[in-house]
Amino acid sequence: MSELRFLPSIGMTGTWALKPPYNELVMASTQYTCTGIESLAGAIASDRDPYAEVYEVNGADESDFELDLKNNAYLVTITSGEGDVVVFPNTAIVSVPNTDGVIYRNLAVVLSLSSLPDEFDTTAIEQQLRDLVLSKLGVNSSSYVIQVGGLTVLTREQSDAYEQARDANIASLTSPIFELTKLRADYESALQRIQHLEQFIIDRGLVV
Length: 208
Known about the structure:
Layout: E1 13-18, E2 32-39, H1 40-45, H2 50-55, H3 62-70, E3 74-80, E4 85-89, E5 93-98, H4 123-137, H5 156-171, H6 176-203
Antiparallel strand pairs: 1-2, 1-5, 2-3, 3-4
């Protein structure tokens, strides 16, 4: 038997718990916002059939509809962030929306690489970006390279000038990440020189 319980307000957002058969309409971990409230009597006065549109289509009994109508129940419309719309009587609400949860969103950072020659290999920079995300967020991310806009054809001279300008920008960088990259490259270069020197000493029998 249906009972008049909760009447949410427009804009109320959270996760919703509903009684059968309406519980199948919502996802337990999805946030929905109340976007509409209308009385059953008002829906009927607007020449609509709320029993067919909301009750019957979801498997509710006509007796539930009649009792809700007698008790001046309301139709509640909620909408998810993805645009999914759910309509149910307010008598189906088990509890007011839970707003205590932490909202998570899938985010992506889009970086423009500007125009690059077709032979440019993005493998290294993609790996560096994934490593940066892993070190900062603890997330193993995926990277995708897409083309934005049309093609641009440069002369060989224009291409060389463009490459020189990019190299000059790299050489003038002083950011912490660039300094760390430079230190790492210097370390690896010094390590190679030490290994070559050690091998030179060994090859000439200079080890005491």
